[in-house]
Amino acid sequence: PEEIAIELKNKGKATARQYRLASIMFTDFKSFTKIAEKITPQELVAELDYYFVNFDAIIEKYHIEKIKTIGDAYMCAGGIPLRNKSNPIDIVLAGLEIQRFVDNQNPEREAIGKQPWGLRIGIHTGEITAGVIGSKRFAYDIWGDSVNIGSRMEEAGEVGKVNISGATYEHIKEFFVSEYRGKIKAKNKGLIDMYFVTKIREELSINGEGIVPNELFKKYVDLHIYSGINYRKAEKYILKRLEKELPNNLHYHDINHTRDVCAAVERLALMEGIEGDDIFLLKTAALYHDSGFIKQYAKNEDIGAALAQEVLPQFGYSQKQIDRIGQLISVTKIPHQPENHLEEIICDADLDYLGGDSFYQIADKLKLELMERSIVNSDKEWDELQIKFLESHHYFTKTAIQLRQKNKEQRIAEIKKRLTNY
Q: Which of 26, 256, 295, 369 is deepest in the core (most CB within 10 A)?
């Protein structure tokens, strides 16, 4: 790196530095040995050079530092030597682009009789040490458990996929579509969660293709990095309490409902053009809107708002913002009566499932919850209640109407037909 080279020139040595937030990526070609056996050494070096030169160009675009190559393995890291908070996001973008590059080469290779190349990519985010080793031939390198975990992510990955650790996921989950894979054992670290990252979220990508970040992506990244609100800590706090304190017999109003509403409110906010801290206010209101179920089943919105008043100051929320969150929580009382755009968004998110693909699975959870409390006593009574509720409900935002209204109308027709069979 240029900064390290200048230090070496001026001082004759470079000081090793600790980095609390860095992201490490390893790539490795599958069946490299078999491919190497079928071509000359000169061809092999030329092939690797072609790929690695293009990898270099990709990571440079995302301000990622190349560390080294060993055979067919390629290693790089973000957040060094200049620290930045966006490096987990940057390195995932680079990883996805590298996979696309390798995949795009294969049709042409096969057309001229060459064997296709498959690549595994592994990424981890954590603490590392970086510095220069050697006295005659200097080499910039990195060390630490995080480096080993990054290598483990690559080993446990699959060809054509970007495999990331749970630590990286926590930094990028708002921006990408990811698939949970389970846990894997890592040396000295126990079990570690793994995820495949598949693409950028549609609403954050150009033309909704999930490939190239749009302007909204960049604004949302900046919001997470520079906002005075520590949303992630507020989220972690309330989810931990809900998991521990919600009654076990909440089949619908459980922690999954909170997560679903939070995801829906984020999606709607982005698609409705909401920017800045207002997105965090909506997501926080979604997180706390059913927290009152910790204390009582009915009429608990005010309890959730009171809990938000109590705990949110420690996470960087101003009193004005907390009051706004309380209003957003209160407006989720049924029937919904929103008075402004943000209130319309949280109301639509709260009942997003009415027009969603998982309607029947979620509705059955609510039926069970109500039956256990003798609020509903038969399937027929439940379907009659559903029709009454679905017909009186309406979505408020253009996005929800466009995405959910048609499905909701279809559910109404299906349930009405089912009622004729009782």
A: 26
